[in-house]
Design goal:
Helix content is 30%, strand content 25%. The protein has helices at 58-65, 88-98, 114-124, 129-142, 158-170, 188-204; strands at residues 16-26, 31-42, 47-51, 73-78, 81-82, 99-102, 176-180, 208-212, 224-229, 232-238. The longest helix is centred in the last third of the chain and has 17 residues, at 188-204. Bound molecules: adenosine-5'-triphosphate (ATP) and magnesium ion (MG). Magnesium ion binds at residues 58-59, 180, 212.
């Protein structure tokens, strides 16, 4: 028994490997350090809740892992692929095919129905309309909105819009789901319902979740808790995940 044994099995090759990540914004005279040296290994199937004060670097880290931004120093390898080697087209394809994103303010396309919002990433990945819509309908059914497929975002509540966004994040069967404050715009109870749903659908699909959150409830669906402060990981703790689904209207 070693005090320093990693939480995950040593034989497990990490799905995500971050090394020496640094990212700063602004000019030399007005420089904001967002990440000050982050090392992180994430094994497939982990569900990580990242907590920390506003401005500590959580979103920046998610952006680097999702190839939406590039580090000043250090690197990210996902499924054996070094993101630094991607050109814009490869990065776009990686985001489309390997990553599902869930945002604080849902970011649905207001001129598309729920069904077409969920189908959109599948269409962009080259699927035909009927195949994409069939996949989208299945996911809308899964998130409890099968009967709202024709509705546009402005006809839906915030919680319903976030359910559509969760469905959209999963339509291309990504290995990784990145969620940035997914409950930040929702009331407490709705936020807890969304977290439970997110945890369940990610687990069902064997996907890996990284979530930045201010919600205490996030630990209930996470297998691991990271604290981020001043651009560094200051705490990394294994959690005991709840394996039974959380009841929606407890
Ligand atoms: N595009 C940008 N331009 C300039 N500064 C930025 C930019 N993005 C982030 N920063 C700065 O980098 C630091 C880290 O920001 P980040 O958004 O990663 O924090 P966060 O932990 O996600 O915060 P919050 O909990 O408020 O979402 C902050 O000081 C922020 O002001
Ligand atoms: Mg943030």
């Amino acid at each position: 028994m070693s005090e320093t044994a990693p939480a995950a099995s040593p034989s497990a090759v990490p799905l995500i490997r971050c090394r020496g990540l640094e990212r700063a914004y602004g000019t030399a005279s007005a420089r904001t350090v967002a990440l000050a040296g982050v090392d992180l290994d994430v094994v497939k199937g982990e569900r990580i809740a990242m907590v920390g004060p506003s401005g500590s670097g959580k979103s920046t880290l998610l952006h680097l892992i999702g190839a939406m931004d590039a580090p000043d120093k250090g690197g990210v390898v996902v499924a054996g692929r070094d993101l630094a080697r991607f050109d814009d087209a490869a990065a776009a394809r990686f985001r489309r095919e390997e990553i599902g994103f869930v945002f604080q303010f849902f970011n649905l396309v207001p001129t598309l129905s729920s069904l077409d919002n969920v189908a959109l990433p599948a269409r962009l990945a080259g699927k035909g309309a009927s195949e994409a819509q069939a996949a989208a309908q299945k996911l809308l059914d899964r998130v409890g909105l099968g009967n709202r497929a024709a509705d546009f975002p402005d006809a839906l509540s915030g919680g319903q819009q976030q359910r559509v966004a969760v469905a959209r994040a999963l339509v291309n069967e990504p290995q990784i789901v990145l969620a940035d404050e997914p409950t930040g715009a929702l009331d407490r109870r709705t936020g807890e319902e969304i977290l439970a749903l997110l945890g369940e659908v990610v687990r069902e699909r064997g996907a890996t979740l990284l979530m930045a959150t201010h919600s205490d409830a996030a630990v209930s669906i996470a297998t691991r808790l990271l604290s981020v402060e001043d651009g560094r990981i200051t705490e990394d703790r294994a959690l005991t995940p709840i394996t039974a689904p959380i009841k929606e209207h407890a």
